[in-house]
Amino acid sequence: MLLTLSTTYQPATDLGFLLYKNPAKVQTFNLNFGHAYVFYPQASENLCTAALLIDIDPVALVRNRRGPSGDGFTLEQYVNDRPYVASSFMSVAIAEVFGSALSGNSRERPALVNEKIPLTATVAVLPCGGGEALLKRLFEPLGYGVDATHHPLDENFPDWGDGPYWSLTLSGHATVHDLLTHLYVLIPVLDGDKHYWIGDDEVDKLLRHGQGWLAGHPEKEQIVNRYLKRRGHLARQALTRLLEADQQDAEETEGSQTREEEAVEQKVSLNEQRLGTVMAALRASGARRVLDLGCSGGNLLRLLLADRQFEAIVGMDVSHRALEIAADRLNFDRLPPKQRERISLLQGSLIYHDARLEGYDAAAVVEVIEHLDEPRLAAFERVLFEFARPKTIVITTPNVEYNVLFEGLPTATFRHRDHRFEWDRQQFSQWSTRVAAQYGYAVRFVPVGTVDPIHGPPTQMAIFTAGTESLTPPAAFI
Ligand code: SAH
């Protein structure tokens, strides 16, 4: 059973960082139904291919009662297609071997994780009774080109016609995380057999991995029914929950937020620069206990977690769904206990006094204030500067002057439709200076991204420090 993933992204060997598997090594993993091997048949600057080979032990399957149900012929439990075709065993192997990539984590290439890169996946043998039409209906709505080859039942007897097996190649621009997630869910959907008992946690698993794409998939009913092996009550439960997710999607959520804003800001990979600058400010502050307020999908949390300076990390967001995405991406359930203890996620709103935010050294509020209604800003100021009162506060927000330089952004529009305002440098500077004076903080300003001589930087950042004199007068702001 073989799955290969290839990219022509340059340098293509970054695929190794995204998969957490070194292209120079052959690695072996023990699974409870056999072994998995990861190796790279090619690894150059221009083209890199990772292969996941799964070697199933049919005898182990029988011992663990994980083989086919055996209502066919007598020896079926020993002689069957399980070792050779992609099935739910492949999904288990993906989760075990590429767990970090499946959750969208990469320590070495955190920014690349969310970037769509050219990817091709080949599944050597896939059972698919629904044929090419079904493969297309499942994968094309997700943005992949589908190339499917049907194999004859027996090459020596062409008259017998085609068998149930296909080779599948998917190609498109996707994140590695998305591609692995789609394969994880859809391979068992294509295969009739499922080697483990379908219980309630399978519904959770399906919805977790289906987050962001399943609710809007035109074949969602078929996917849910087949994934849950047509257990009606579970399928109904899953579909109801998907409907709720779909409605939530329509509201303002993390997914569309980042995608939309990223599309506008992509040219300068601004998000990456912003997070880098915020991290630098937090590190320099000497903070050990930090808050990420409006943490969304957890991009900053991931960087904080990777830095041992930060002993206690709290992510807070008003959106429950954003927090679910963050927990998923941070691989919350599978973090080693020492890491797990360092981080927590809170649901809450920044415009209500919240005692849970007290006792921290620093707070980051990255691209959040522009989502608050202007009349609510006063409440936010008190919540953060008066009650939570961390020693350092780092706030970033778009510089509206820069918008004219973004291609594809119509004039006089904000970078995202949920933005309630976008300020120019003077407005941000005036607001920050007034808040600093009112609550006893010093403030200095740091430009983020490439500074345009006329329009300034794409993102503006203010660093507030409690109880000290202003380090740089606001007039010095570039
Ligand atoms: N800091 C993240 C996300 C910015 S998007 C980043 O830089 O990528 C803005 C986030 O603020 C969203 O996740 C939104 O849910 C959250 N948010 C909006 N209003 C909020 C409020 N009143 N309280 C807490 N979070 C809020």
Explain the layout of strands and helices.
Layout lengths: L1 E6 L6 H6 L7 E5 L2 E10 L4 E9 L1 H6 L24 H10 L1 H4 L14 E11 L3 H9 L5 E8 L9 E13 L1 H15 L9 H10 L10 H8 L4 H19 L3 H12 L4 H16 L3 E5 L5 H7 L6 E6 L2 H10 L7 H6 E5 L14 E5 L10 H12 L3 E7 L26 H15 L1 E8 L10 E8 L12
Parallel strand pairs: 8-9, 8-11, 9-10, 11-12
Antiparallel strand pairs: 1-4, 1-5, 2-3, 3-4, 5-7, 6-7, 12-14, 13-14
Helix pairs in contact: 3-6, 6-8, 7-9, 8-9
The structure holds S-adenosyl-L-homocysteine (SAH).
The site of S-adenosyl-L-homocysteine has 18 residues, from helix 10.
Short description:
The chain is built from 16 helices and 14 strands.
Provide a descriptive summary of the structure in words.
The chain contains 16 helices and 14 strands. The protein is α/β, with parallel strands linked by helices and 478 residues long. It has a 7-stranded antiparallel beta sheet with strand order 2-3-4-1-5-7-6. Strands 10-9-8-11-12-14-13 form a 7-stranded mixed beta sheet, with helices on both faces. A hairpin with a 4-residue loop joins strand 3 and strand 4. The protein is elongated. The termini are far apart. Residues 249-254 and 470-478 have low confidence and may be disordered.
